[in-house]
Amino acid sequence: MEHQEVHGAPDASSKVLPSFTFLREVEERSGQPVSRCYQCTKCTGGCPMNFAMDIQPSQIVRFIQLGLKEPLLKSRSIWICACCKTCKSRCPNGIDIGRLNDTLKEMAVEMEVPAAEKNVPIFHQVFLGSVEKNGRVHELGMMLGYKMKTGTYMQDAPLGLAMFRKGILKVMPEGIHQKREIQRIFQKAKENGR
Ligand code: SF4
Ligand code: SF4
Predict the structure, then answer these.
(1) Under a CB-based contact definition with an 8 Å cutoff, are residues 80 and 49 in contact?
(2) What are 135-145's pLDDT values in tens digits?
(3) Of the candidates 102, 112, 114, 91, which has an alpha carbon nearest to the alpha carbon of residue 29?
(4) Fewest Cβ atoms closer than 10 Å to its Cβ: which of 16, 71, 106, 173?
(5) Are 127 and 137 spatial neighbours (Cβ–Cβ below 8 Å)?
(6) Structural domains in the chain?
(7) What is the pLDDT of residues 72-119, one digit of tens each?
């Protein structure tokens, strides 16, 4: 994977000049009309994860318009977003900030920017690994993989035990009919560098 420099964000005393290159790249990769945003903040008002974000949803869009790449790729917000699409349903311009955050996460990984929420990419990896292997997620296997990779063995242990006792967590993965189709999707994504 090619390593690229992340250019520094301007400090408070410098002028912020729009970088249309970054704006165009994000619009093209995400398919979202970022340029149409006029900062009504309806997205931020409805976002269920806003309380934990360091850059609010409407600010994410504004930062993209201004070309502020570094603070976005280093932010917690892009990893915390739940991709619930509440922002999209509220936006008068139909902008899906969850999709923007997916694009920014892809860029952060490509540029080897360490994730501000380091356990979230690990969760993504084990979740997708489970789907690729089994055709659908095997919750128990995924949870054990996540715990081993993050060292969070006892976190949520009582909840996991209760779910296991109620039969919600299956010991063996359940098969699906189109497993090969799912694996072909993963193969295609890898061929496209995703
Ligand atoms: S709701 Fe849409 S137009 Fe309003 S601030 Fe959010 S992204 Fe921009
Ligand atoms: S998709 Fe992300 S940014 Fe949009 S409302 Fe949901 S959590 Fe917030």
Answers:
(1) yes
(2) 888 988 988 89
(3) 102
(4) 16
(5) yes
(6) 20-110 (1.10.1060.10), 119-191 (no CATH)
(7) 999 999 999 999 999 999 999 999 999 999 999 999 999 999 888 888
189 Cβ inside 6 Å of ligand 2: no
In whole angstroms, give the CA distance from residue 161 to residue 39.
45
SS (H, E, C) the chain: CCCCCCCCCCCCCCCCCCCHHHHHHHHHHHCCCHHHCCCCCHHHHHCCCHHHCCCCHHHHHHHHHHCCHHHHHCCCHHHHCCCCCHHHHHCCCCCCHHHHHHHHHHHHHHCCCCCCCCHHHHHHHHHHHHHHHHCCCCHHHHHHHHHHHHCCCCCCHHHHHHHHHCCCCCCCCCCCCCHHHHHHHHHHHHHCCC
Q: How far is the CA of 102 from the centre of ligand 2 (A)?
A: 11
CA of 61, nearest ligand number: 1
> Is any ligand 2 atom within 6 A of the Cβ of residue 47?
yes
Q: Model pTM?
A: 0.75
- Cβ neighbours of 83 (radius 10 Å): 14
Q: With a 6 A CB cut-off, is 95 part of the ligand 1 pocket?
A: yes
